Amino acid sequence: MKIKASAVFFIASLAPSPNSTRAFSSRASRRVAATSLSNRLLMSSTVSANPLLEQEGLPKFESIEPKHLTPAVEELLQKLEQDFASLETTFTKDGSDNELNLDYDQVLPAVERIQAPLGYIWGVAAHLNGVKNGDELPLYDALEAIEKKTAVASDPPFVLQQKKRAIDNSLRGMRLGGVGLEGAEKERFNEIKLRLAALSTNFSNNVLDATKAFSLSVQTEDAYKLEGVPDSAKAQWANSHLQFLKSQQKKGEEVAELPEMNPQKGPWRITLDMPSYLPALQHIPDRELRKEVYMANLQRAS
């Protein structure tokens, strides 16, 4: 089947990335929402025979088999070529200035509707290949077999070395993801992944808490320590100090009169939030002041 260059580029952009198996259900739901009614009607004649073409709701994993993949992709490639060519005919030019007379809804949503069914299939195939690789889709076993062949080759040429590197990288990624493990080892791997995810979340929360907890106030009498700092940074720190004073006032109590913000005379409040932290390291001339801010950032949650 011949496809014009623009369609080839368009189809190539649908290839799944190494991260395509992550959070598949949520992506599938978004793609399903984008699938047009016309696409669904076209697929209706083959839905019963090919569950990959039944794209309303979540994937029918219990019915999908490797034999369904090639026919589904071939059918959708043909449909995609037809729809893409039809879409191009709608890109008409305005006779007055010879410019395309289009709006947003005529382009990006239309492209999304065209690519959604094929993208859906790529996602299902990539997901199943990652979590339930079988004898009919033996990617892991095939790569291992090729790895053994290249491993015994003595002094391989440059091209073979590059192929071996690609194979090694692919297998490493699969093994780090748990592919190839069975039984107790697979269960233990999943336990470790869950534990690691929990620890990672807790650590991120601790880092965030430590970031919010730190502040360094520079009083008016120490204004010389900020000599040469841009006015924009001083204004930000002065405003941060004023907002901090406001946050300390408790409801129901008598509100003390707050001083006016003075970027030139201070006081100033420096925090570890990046918009405050980076100007401090870049512009503060006082070495000890920079060190205190830097060490606080370095030791967060440690």
Automatic annotation (TrEMBL):
Pfam families found in the cross-reference section: TOP_N
GO MF annotations, alphabetized: metalloendopeptidase activity
UniProt xrefs under Gene3D superfamilies: 1.10.1370.40, Neurolysin, domain 3 (1.10.1370.10)
Sequence ranges assigned to domain Oligopeptidase A N-terminal in this UniProt record: 73-146
Source taxon at top rank: Eukaryota
InterPro entries: Neurolysin/TOP_dom2, OpdA_N, Pept_M3A_M3B
GO BP annotation list: peptide metabolic process; proteolysis
PANTHER family, per database record: LD37516P, PROTEASE M3 THIMET OLIGOPEPTIDASE-RELATED
Listed name of the protein: Oligopeptidase A N-terminal domain-containing protein
Organism: Cylindrotheca closterium
